[in-house]
Design a protein that fits this description.
The protein is built from 13 helices and 23 strands. By secondary structure, the chain is of the alpha/beta class.
Length: 493
């Protein structure tokens, strides 16, 4: 196993892949570097003397500014490096697009819906319009499990605290996300459960849902029902018969939409798991499929790389707006734009937002950016899409699902058990996490520094995604976890 890595030839730091002891002398590209202190796994050490106010370079790009003179062999972290980022910036389009050559097609076993859409699960979803009926929705879910039979793979409720007493963008976000989930093809059938007096009531929500199949989407207003649970169970019995009529069939993987997210990141995220997901993304796109990258605040510091990969100047301008609008959102709430990474990120070796973002955006691979989506906007263009959503794991993963992702690939260095409305595949950055948390982790990328190659792991990950798309449950599904969260931007009445 490698003990350290210098990621780019122009870097003036290397990253410890395993804990390194003080006073060790390492050969880094033919130069001897003696460590002045212990270097934890995932953390950086200087490969040369770096004077105060000079740039610290990782991934071939600046990840911050030295606060003080840093000697060769010294540990580099938050105590001696600061962000070099400012606030709103002016950007110039410097197009650098690499077109991916097509590769051989692949198929998975999915569900073709009557409207032409494709699902990878055949579930029944219970969507409350308002938080007031959350307990009713979960009670219905419990009592309805007897209808999980045949090709019906599950019945799940998605409680949330919103749907009433909301203003402006908050209310719009709720209505759009709920309608997106109602229309998601992983749900073979949907029961929309309303209270009756809420702002986002069923009649209002129908305007957001658009055209729907009444055999697939059913509605129940609790205030208009003598026994809403009994009535809901009758509806679900009918829905179960309808959903049970679908069977898996061979479908070209060009119809897959895969969301990409990271959380609980560490110093290996940008070295192992995120590059593997990026290579997977390129592979799927080369077969005609689509991927979606989000968590906009974790693009800050790496945004120009994405901007220059935009297919045209119109998309470049949309990406500029994507970045600056999120910065203005921080400013409007009197928050510091660059107060990131989190405590867990720092413990894992990430020192600045540039450090985090340059690692985070490795998930995008090398494909051109083909579209930029607003929050809750559906994917409509094949290839790599950028989606507006915050860094919060559950909110961003729900946003990916709402935009049409069949699966979310979630890379993590520290681990997390959460799920979102679609299968949420946890991908570890290091083998230690994979070995400790087998009940959480679905795929291990820690082997990238233990002998596996990037193309090998990308192919293995592709095979695993095909298996999940064809019905294999991820660990969070096995545990029975199905969560959702909506982005809250404004205030409540």
């Amino acid at each position: 196993m490698k003990e350290f890595i210098k990621i780019h030839q122009n870097d003036n730091v290397a990253v410890a892949l395993t804990p390194l002891s003080a006073n060790r002398t390492l050969d880094v590209d033919g130069t001897e570097v003696t460590l002045r202190e212990d270097i934890p796994q995932g953390h950086k050490f200087a490969l040369t003397d770096i004077p105060a106010d000079a740039q610290v370079i990782k991934y071939g790009c600046p990840i911050g500014i030295a606060k003080e003179n840093i000697s060769c062999g010294s540990w580099i972290h938050t105590h001696n490096i600061r962000t070099g980022l400012g606030d709103l910036l002016t950007y110039t389009y410097d197009r650098s697009v690499t077109e991916l050559p097509p590769t051989a097609p692949r198929t998975f076993r999915g569900y073709r819906r009557p409207n032409g859409k494709v699902g990878i699960r055949n579930e029944i979803w219970i969507i409350p319009t308002v938080g007031c009926v959350n307990n009713v929705a979960t009670a219905i879910e419990r009592k309805a499990q007897k209808y999980v039979q045949g090709s019906v793979e599950g019945i799940f409720a998605f409680p949330h605290p919103y749907g009433c007493s909301q203003m402006g963008d908050d209310q719009e976000n709720t209505r759009k996300i709920l309608s997106d989930l109602i229309n998601h093809p992983n749900a073979g059938g949907v029961l929309v459960l309303g209270l009756g007096c809420e702002n986002s009531n069923i009649d209002v929500l129908k305007n957001y849902i658009g055209d729907y199949d009444p055999k697939r989407v059913r509605f129940l207003v609790a205030q208009e029902s003598e026994d809403e649970i009994a009535d809901a169970l009758n509806i679900l019995e009918d829905l179960s018969a309808y959903v049970g009529s679908f069977e898996r069939e061979d479908i070209d993987c060009s119809e897959l939409v895969i969301g990409m997210k990271c959380g609980g990141s560490d110093g290996l995220s940008g070295i192992t798991a995120n590059p593997v997901v990026g290579a997977f993304s390129d592979l799927l796109i080369s077969k005609g499929g689509s991927t979606v990258l989000t968590e906009v605040p974790e693009m800050f510091g790496a945004e120009t790389q994405l901007m220059n990969r935009c297919e045209d100047e119109v998309l470049f301008e949309k990406t500029v707006d994507l970045i600056n609008n999120f910065k203005q959102y921080f400013q409007s709430h009197n928050q510091t734009i660059y107060e990131n990474p989190s405590p867990g990120n720092k413990k894992g070796g990430i020192s600045t937002l540039e450090d985090k973002s340059l690692g985070c955006t490795q998930k995008s691979g090398s494909a051109p950016v083909m579209d930029v989506l607003s929050y809750a906007e559906q994917v409509k263009t094949k290839g790599l899409n950028l989606l507006s959503a915050p860094g919060n794991d559950l909110v961003a993963s729900t946003a990916l699902a709402a935009s049409g992702a069949h699966i979310v690939l979630f890379t993590t260095g520290r681990g997390t058990p959460f799920a979102c409305p679609v299968p949420t595949m946890k991908i570890s950055t290091n083998s230690s996490l994979n070995n400790r948390k087998q009940n959480w982790i679905d795929f291990n990328c820690g082997t990238l520094v233990e002998g596996d190659t990037l193309p090998e792991l990308a192919e293995k990950l592709f095979d695993e995604v095909i298996a999940v798309a064809s019905g294999k449950e991820v660990k969070s599904e096995i545990a029975g976890f199905h969560d959702m969260a909506i982005f809250k931007q404004g205030v409540t009445l």
